[in-house]
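fyi for ur records
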Amino acid sequence: MSDLTALVEPRLGNTIGRWISFAAACRPLGLVALSPDTRIGGNGDWGCGYNLADHEIVGFSHVHDWQSGGVLVMPVTGDVPATAGPEGFKSPFSRDTELCKPGYHRVHLDRYHITAELTATPRAGIHRYTFPPAQDAALLLDLASQCGPCAMLSASLKQLDARTFEGHVVNGPTLRKPKNHTVHFVLTLDTDASLSPFDPSRVQARLSLGRPAAPVTVKVGISYTSIAAAHTNLQAETAGKSFAILHREAHDDWNNQLAYIVVEGGDPTRRARFYTDLYFSLLGRRTVSDVAGTYFDNTGPSPRIRQIPLNADGRPRYRHFSSDAFWGAQWSLVPLWALVYPELIDEFCHSFMDMYRNGGLIPRGPTGGADTFVMTSAQTTPLFACALNNTLHRPSDLEEVYQAVRKNHFSGGLMSKAGYEHDTCKGGGIEDYIALGYIPEDLPPAGFHTHGAAQTIEHAYNDWALAQLASALGHTDDAELFTKRSRNYRNLFDRSVGFCRPRERDGSWTEPFDPSQKKGWTEANAWTFTYHSAHDVPGLIECFGSRDAFVARLEEAFVLSEQQKFFAPRDHHNLIPLDFGNEPALATAHLFQLAGRPDRTQFWLRRVIDTIKAGNSPEDTWGGDEDQGIMGAWNVLVSIGLFSATGACEKPARYQLTAPLFDRVTIALPAGRTLVITTSGLNPSVTNYTESVTFNGAPLSTLELPLTALVAGGELHVILSPAPAGLTA
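which gave:
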């Protein structure tokens, strides 16, 4: 097998400096993300973590999760005290000597002349430090300093023997996470260490190592449930294994996951970027359950430790996860995972249903054992619609799952809650949405993102996703109800201006109107949200009055956006018609295809990719925040020429076919099957258009296939041309 990890650049896009945006010493969806930190305090989880603009390392911490952090370690030489804090013990480093690949990170700490190497198992971080000869060496353990978004409220540290330490650190609340939660750890060394006295109220400890003659290996097991579980996690995943063996296992784990899609030919840089994108699609959302299946439940008035059901062999049936928003996942992670990693869809559904049984709601962005209510609407509904309609999740009680998903679409569910609205149900506007057919712009200031127009359109799409599920399960009345509600976006369309726009409670339009205004919209504007309803392109065309008018306005949006390189800075997404560095615009190019103009889809996709999503150096980006796999997964789908503009929610899910960027794509499927996508006429230096397509030797009359056909396997052959062929969608 080729070494696909050699193509990955884990540092890509991290100039944004977000706590969750980078890790190399980790496993796919691993609990531990062991990383050098160049900044540890930030605004929320922004402006902290590992940043290419920085040239000093303050330590190596083990948890870089959505609203979680902790266990900062720094190797030193000399008499540097831990109480000096990160500013006192930080060290310069050079990128010239840095090596960063999936499962491994190496840096040289110039101040101390120490070579630091990092790798990981799913629940443990492993360090190897080569100290300069004949110098006093030590590990500084800082459990007091803020790590990322979280203040460390309290901590403990205890030495069990000459080579074993254990403790915990309490992550404080954040703007997004209102409750505390604890990170438990156990640390072992392969050499003796002595613990210097320290202030137990502020745990910053020095572990003196003498003058080691050989590299020192440090293993740190992590658990969110207990110190005992941290011991078990460490023992189960690292016992008897050297750093070299664990590094090899991490490398092989990543290589095996990346090899689910093998791409050949095309532009070499684009091929490398493909594997960086695929890496990120498996990186950011993290396991939170222990190797034995215990997990931390913080949904109720007091925290509890719960148990995932076990298989006959005594292993957990699935994992539990933390996650930033699934906002935009319907156009990225969901269709990618459904095709290539269906077991992840199944595991996330199990995890979220456990949280429903524990706390009463399927979450939309859990961390620390509870929901953060990040972003808006019922954004996990498309995940469940895809999972159930395509038999990717097979619950023992299907009706229970349906009712759990349905609950979020009424008062008291996720559609009642604005972003980060933890204790009330006022900001989501679901009552107005049901009564008026839209959400006015006078919602109470509860939480974030209380934008009536945006929430109306997002609710409508999620209602459509639920309608697909209701129809498939025989809930006819619900299917009719949610289909009707899915058309509520039309109540915001003003034909006099040719845009969706905000409305007031009395039915009047919000004045004045500018399609680039911020009012009414969540991280976008009227341009973007007018074309957000990919579930009902015929209805959108009807709003515009004709297909030509629909296509012309969409074309105008892309032309204007290209002038700004398809990207606007964070918090200024409204200043560009279509910001492809953010979620709301991700399906817009495919609306051309759904309106019968696949040539314009292929033209603009290539423009977007080439402009902001093509390079593979540390300085390159996605044009914005990668958002725990959202942007990486979108790039993967576009690059192989498969996409689901409707979020893969139907039974079966529908995938649109566009122009692949490679000569050959081989996707590994269950039961040893493969889906092979081959191209003829590919020219990497120009835009390629689809001239014709055959599937298993038979010509296709439309540029679309159901997921059932794709996962059955076979060969999809695409003949490309440098000029549009006039095919319809």
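The chain has a mean pLDDT of 96. thats all i got for now
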